[in-house]
Amino acid sequence: MATTRLNLEMLGAQETKAGNYFVSNYPPYSFWTPASVPEALATLEREPLPDTPLGVYLHIPFCRKRCHFCYFRVYTDKNAGEIKRYLDAAIAEMTTYASKPFIGGRKPRFVYFGGGTPSYLSTTQLTYLTDAMKALLPWDEAEEVTFECEPGTLNEHKLTTIRNVGVTRLSLGVEHFDESILKLNGRAHGAKEIDRAYNFARSVGFPQINIDLIAGMMGDTDALWQATVAKAIELLPDSVTIYQMEIPYNTTIFAEMQEGGNEIAPVATWAKKREWVQYAFGQLEQAGYTVTSGYTAVRDPATTRFCYRDQLWAGADLLGLGVASFSHVGGVHFQNQHNFDPYIDKITGGELPIYRALTPTAEQSLIRELILQFKLGHVNLGYFAQKFGVDLRVRFAETMNELRTEGYLEEHGDELRLNREGLLRVDRLVHEFFLPEHRDARYA
User: Fold this and answer.
1) Rounded Cα gap, residues 70 and 114, in angstroms
2) Residue pLDDT, tens place only, 383-434
3) What distance lies between CA 120 and its chain's CA centroid?
4) pTM above 0.90, yes or no
5) 3-state secondary structure of 319
6) 133 pLDDT exceeds 70?
7) In DSSP terms, which residues pair with 210 in a beta bridge?
8) Hey, CA dihedral for 350, 354, 360, 365, is it positive or negative?
9) What residues contact 108, with CB distance under 8 A and at least 6 apart?
C-alpha cells in the first residue's frame, strides 16, 4: 500500500489527545465571527427557498451533574426561578422568530430537544414550555419530535407527559451499562436507573426509543464493553447510537490533563475505539439490526428514521433556540450567546441573542453537505450534480483517489460508498475534503 499523507496521519494519531473529533458542520465553528452577525439578521428577513424544510432545536442546559467528558453548555446550579426565567427567554426568542419572513408560513418538519438534560425539567415546566412553543410554531405536522433524556431523571409520570406533548423519539443517554464506568466518568445515573427508565418508556408507547452508547470511556475494557453491547441488544431498542469518546478542550478530563501535564487522555486509543464500535455493529447486525451511519444501527430501516439528521444534512433550515445553540437559515450559520446571563439579557433587552455567524460560499456549502452525507456511508453523485452542478469525481479527484488507495472508498453506479473501515473513521476522513485554510485549524 502506498504511504500517502492520509496514511501517515492515521498511523500517527492512535492515542486520544485533546480536541474535537466529531464533525457536525462546515466550515469549522472557529471561523464564525461576531462581525458576520448582520448577515444572520438579514437572512431572517428573506422568504425561504421553495421546498426547504424547517426544523426547531431547543437547548435545555440543565443537568443534575456535569459528566467529566461533557463539552456542551450545561448548568448544575440553577433553581426553579432561574429555570423559569430561561424558559420564558426561549419562548420570547421563538416569538420573535415566528414573525420573521424566513418562516414563510412553514410548520416544523422536525423538533429536537437537546441538552444538557431536557428531562431535567419538571412535568409542569415541560407542559408550560411546549404549549407556548406549539402556539407559535405548531408541530402537528412534524415527522419527528426528539427528546434527550438522562435515565435518572425519569419516572412513569414524566415519561407520560413527554409522550403526551408529542415526542416521537425518546433518546436515552445510557452511555454504558457498567456501574463503575458510569461513576468513573461522572454520569449522574446508575445502572439500575437505566432498566427502570427503559421499562417505563416502553410501557408509555413511544414510537422510537434510541439508546446512546460511548465507546472508549475511562476505565472501559473488552469484557465490560462486550457486556454493555449484550445488554443493549437484550433491551431491543429501536435504534442504538454509538459515539467514539473524544476529549474537547472544555471538558473536566482536559482540565485534569493540563493540571498533570499530560497530552494523552486517559481513555482508549482510536484503534481500540474503532475495534469496539466494529464489535458492537457486528453484534447488532447478528441480532437483526442494520447499520445506517457511522454511529447508528436500527432495527427496522423502513420505519426507524432520523429526520433531524437527514434533513439537516441535506440543507434544511434549522432554528436553534436557547443558550449557545446553533442555527442554519437561508444558507447562513449562526450561534447564540454562549452564557446564561448574556443570552437572557439580550432577549429581555429586545434583541436576538445571536453571538457569531458565517455565510458559506457556494463551494463551502457543497463541502458541508458532502462531508455530512458521507457520515451516512454513501453519497449520491446525481444529487450533487443536480443541486450544485458538480461532478464529485472530478472536483475531488485527488481526495477520492487517495481514499480508494487506502481502501476506504468504493464506487457503485451513481453512489460513492465508504466500506466499514472507512465508516468507522469517517470523522477523520472527511477532513480530507476541507479547504486548505480549514484543514489544520482548530475546529471549535
Assistant:
1) 13
2) 999 999 999 999 999 999 999 999 999 999 999 999 999 999 999 999 999 9
3) 19
4) yes
5) strand
6) yes
7) 171, 239
8) negative
9) 54, 55, 56, 137, 139, 141, 142
Q: Please report, as a single letter, which amino acid is at residue 58.
A: L
> Strand, coil or helix: what is 405?
helix
- Position 394: which residue type? V
Q: Are 337 and 324 in contact (CB under 8 A)?
A: yes
Cell of 187: 454520569
Neighbouring C-alpha atoms within 13 Å toward the C-beta of 28: 20
What is the radius of gyration, based on Cα positions, of the chain?
21
Which of 173-212 are b and which e, b meaning 16 or more Cβ less than 10 Å from the residue's Cβ? bbbbbbeebbebbbbbbebebbeebbebbeebebebbbbb
Listing DSSP states for 110-144 in one string gives EEEEEES-GGGS-HHHHHHHHHHHHHHS--TT-SE
What confidence score (pLDDT) does residue 9 get? Answer: 44
Q: How far apart are CA 58 and CA 77, in angstroms?
A: 20
Q: In the sheet where 378-380 sits, what is the strand order?
A: 378-380, 415-418, 409-412
